[in-house]
Amino acid sequence: MRALVILGDDAASCLLAHIYRKIVRRGEVLLVARSKLLGYAHVLLPYYSAGLIDSPQLISRPLLELADLVRVVAWDHVEARRPGELVVEGKAYLSPRLVVSAWPSCEAVRGRAVLSLETPEDAETLKDLLSAGLSEVVVLGSAAALPLVDSLLRAGIKPILVWEGAPFDSDMLSVLLEDLKARGVKLVDDLDKAPRSALHVSYAWGLAPQYPQLGLTARRIRVDETGSVQGLTSVWALGCATEVIGSGGHIHPVESEEEVLLQAIACALSLAGAGSLAVTRYFTARLGDRVYASLGLTQREAEQLGMRPAVTRIRGWGPWSNTLVKLVASRGARLVGAQLVIGAEATGLLGLLYHAVRARAGLHDLLCALSPLNPLQPILD
């Protein structure tokens, strides 16, 4: 049986190995690790750097090695000689099934040094700088970097954010931008407008990992809904350096780790021959006590695909009064996208709406599932 080799050590890589092993117990599974700490969540690295959490780890090494029989090897013990051949600790693996954790990296831009927040080691570096009294930070990564922006704000630092856009329509985007400005975040549309003297930190921004021997040299890696890399055989990729080709031909960049974890599940199921899970956009980011999310297609994207979408906006939904929801549907009243601004207490809406978007649920079915009444009101003795 062909070996499964995963080039990655983050939470998505470990989740993929864990789910795959739940289904397939035969054959070798190798996890190639660059960091000493396995199973870390990228989205938690900024909060760890700011001293807001004790550890960014979600999945432990003993779970993988002892329960899942996954062999963990160090990054410098692996060599890619040519397409279809990997050498791991001196042993050649011919035509392995290869999964690449593709997280963007940026070391410098326009002559400015950049700290690329990718691993726990990078988070330790940023933590030391913040502990030393660092107060001026330029954030690269636009909407994908909102976890870093949020963590800095919670640490009392008002960063400068180089803004390039977000997966929202203009009406919902305006709410996010106003929120950022109200919290003291300075938005600039060009890096030259940011001070060169500040620390520049990138998060989920930059180039995809470059593996010329494997045929991976593009800025972003294009994959299908199961993670299979376009134009390559037996190579899969997941991460914020990928872009997904949807069933309707629409291509969207992956911009949040929540979607990366869904990619890991879809990839594991596909590799194990246990069916497929079609992944569509799942962008979500927290800013203070609010959560901003974009699921599936935006209205603009639906129009570009010739759908002539119908749009429904809902302010306050059932027991969640502090919500703003925009639903995008086809002319047949099938849900193709949703955008939300919600309080942290209403995050249960995210899973429900994501499932509805994936299933192309009817708007009437969705409205029946979400009662406009709050069962906890009035409070009765």
What name is given to the CATH topology of the largest domain?
FAD/NAD(P)-binding domain
Q: How many strands in all?
A: 23
Strand order of the largest sheet: 3-2-1-7-16
Say which CATH homologous superfamily of the largest domain is assigned.
Answer: FAD/NAD(P)-binding domain
* Largest sheet properties: 5 strands, parallel
Q: Please identify the top-level CATH class of the largest domain.
A: Alpha Beta
Uncertain segments: none
**CATH architecture assignment of the largest domain:** 3-Layer(bba) Sandwich
Tally of helical runs: 10
Give the strand content.
Answer: 25-35%
Which overall shape is indicated by the principal axes computed on the Cα atoms? globular
How far apart the termini lie comes to: 64 Å
* Strand-pairing-aware structural class: alpha/beta
Helix proportion range: 25-40%
Mean pLDDT: 91
How many domains is the backbone divided into?
A: 3
**Using only CA atoms, what is the Rg?**
21 Å
